[in-house]
Amino acid sequence: MAEDEDLTNQLDSIQQQVNQQNAAKADAETVIGSVSEQLRQIEEQLRQATAELGTIKEQRVAVENDITLNERQLAEAQKND
Question: Among 3, 13, 18, 33, fewest CB within 10 Å belongs to which?
Fold first, then answer.
């Protein structure tokens, strides 16, 4: 009888450990899901920022080209005066 009770206690203890591990697993899965969503959002923000940077670089090149052209035109105008 005592042996049966001991085995029952061991089984209960093991079941509690399994339950605790299942709860920890569920918590970890929730955290992983949350972190994955945050990562997805950050990747999207990065994609948008990279696209915006490309546009800004193109605009900078256009402005630099305009400055170069204006400087040439100014130099020509000053020569002709």
Answer: 3
